[in-house]
């Protein structure tokens, strides 16, 4: 440690900052007092430079501490700000789906779901006012999409059209059961060796980093007859729109004529044509309108042109795979967002993943494909039929009832709000899907 006779320049040169700071440190009150006493002859600026280099914090923080001491004659560590994710951003799709189901349970009981009820009573969250809305509702677009889906799939069944359910899933190399039996009497590896026992099941390294490691992705499609025969061997480490479309084109000939294909909006949403958006240049919007022979005035603002685009874009927003299916006399029916429970194949994937978790003993990526194939072979047509029946008779029926219950609940609630003098009009209405 430099002596009190060292000059400020010598102190600075001998205390150059490290190239990499692994952890910030704060001097204790006692250390700060010692530093002050050892540098009585130094200027405040020299002291600040020295402390800043020693502790590894910026000079502004040191000046703040000195100002505090001058004012209160006491020292305390500066407050450090913590950047925490909001609750919403920390939720994955499974958590969001669970919350949605909880909200729907209120509707089925003919109760109004509020933030207080859902978050505090059922999810053990503290209630906190986040906005002006007091009632949890689906966006209008979601309600319309759900209603349209349920209407169409009912119509297709009445027409005796074959309905296939398509989806993709993935599994990490370390996928295994989360809970196992453990012998609590084995307290150490040495004790296990002396007693001729094991230390329990081997854990995959990826358990230390959930969601990490190599993963295997598979796309498949099935009906009440079971999985469709797929000779393409569509196992991937990565999946994108292009690879999905290649697989989809190969599986289409294996489907019955005039069939319906139910799927979600993951990789399947590539448009045949790009429609102008607010991010487009004005000249590009004008050129697009001209190419479609849509009339507009040259003096119009961009916002006016985009309004014209919005009125016509439905005619030009066809999906690539929808057109591929239509070319072979098949129809694509898309699930509403956040409604994976309407797809029976989700229940099938749960069975498949459960089998892999129980039989995955090597935790090696090269063995995953074999386990996947074994699991798929165990999924019989009867299993498919049971899953489809469950979705049809229970899930779809509850969803249909939900919309009716919701409408009955919302109307009187809105009247009460209006009577109280609060009017939000439609300022909080959600934007439509692109």
TrEMBL record:
Picking any one GO molecular function of the record gives:
nucleic acid binding
* Any matching Pfam family: DDE_3
Residue numbers spanned by region Disordered? 1-29
InterPro entries noted in UniProt: RNaseH_sf, Tc1-like_DDE_dom
Q: Where is the Tc1-like transposase DDE domain?
A: 235-360
Q: From the Swiss-Prot or TrEMBL record, give the protein name.
A: Tc1-like transposase DDE domain-containing protein
Task: Give the species.
Answer: Acanthoscelides obtectus
């Amino acid at each position: 440690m430099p002596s009190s006779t060292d000059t400020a320049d010598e102190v600075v040169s001998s205390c150059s900052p490290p190239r990499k700071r692994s952890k910030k440190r704060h001097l204790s009150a006692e250390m700060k007092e010692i530093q002050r006493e050892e540098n009585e002859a130094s200027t405040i600026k020299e002291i600040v430079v020295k402390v800043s280099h020693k502790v590894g914090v910026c000079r502004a923080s040191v000046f703040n501490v000195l100002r505090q001491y001058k004012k209160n004659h006491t020292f305390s560590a500066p407050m450090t700000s913590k950047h925490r994710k909001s609750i919403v951003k920390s939720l994955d799709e499974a958590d969001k789906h669970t919350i949605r189901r909880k909200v729907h349970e209120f509707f089925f009981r003919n109760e109004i779901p509020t933030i207080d009820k859902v978050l505090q009573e059922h999810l053990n969250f503290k209630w906190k006012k986040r906005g002006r809305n007091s009632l949890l509702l689906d966006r209008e677009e979601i309600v319309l999409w759900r209603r349209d889906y349920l209407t169409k799939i009912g119509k297709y069944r009445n027409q005796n059209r074959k309905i296939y359910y398509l989806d993709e899933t993935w599994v990490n190399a370390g996928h295994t059961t989360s809970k196992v039996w453990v012998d609590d009497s084995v307290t150490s590896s040495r004790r296990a060796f002396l007693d001729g026992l094991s230390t329990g099941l081997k854990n995959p390294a990826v358990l230390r980093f959930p969601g990490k490691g190599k993963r295997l992705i598979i796309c498949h499609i099935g009906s009440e007859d079971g999985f469709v025969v797929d000779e393409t061997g569509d196992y991937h480490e990565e999946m994108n729109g292009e690879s999905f479309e290649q697989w989809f084109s190969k599986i289409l000939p294996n489907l019955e004529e005039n069939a319906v294909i139910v799927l979600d909006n993951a990789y399947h949403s590539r448009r045949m044509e790009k429609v102008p958006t607010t991010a487009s240049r004005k000249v590009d919007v004008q050129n697009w309108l001209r190419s479609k022979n849509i009339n507009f005035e040259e003096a119009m603002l961009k916002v006016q042109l985009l309004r014209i685009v919005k009125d016509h874009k439905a005619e030009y927003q066809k999906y690539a795979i929808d057109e591929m299916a239509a070319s072979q006399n098949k129809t694509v029916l898309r699930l509403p967002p956040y409604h994976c429970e309407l797809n029976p194949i989700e229940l099938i994937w749960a069975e498949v993943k459960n089998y892999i978790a129980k039989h995955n003993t090597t935790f090696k990526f090269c063995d995953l494909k074999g386990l996947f194939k074994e699991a798929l072979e165990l999924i019989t047509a009867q299993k498919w039929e049971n899953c489809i029946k469950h979705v049809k008779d229970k899930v779809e029926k509850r969803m249909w009832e939900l919309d009716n219950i919701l409408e009955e609940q919302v109307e009187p609630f809105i009247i009460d709000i209006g009577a109280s003098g609060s009017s939000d009009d439609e300022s909080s209405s959600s934007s439509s899907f692109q």
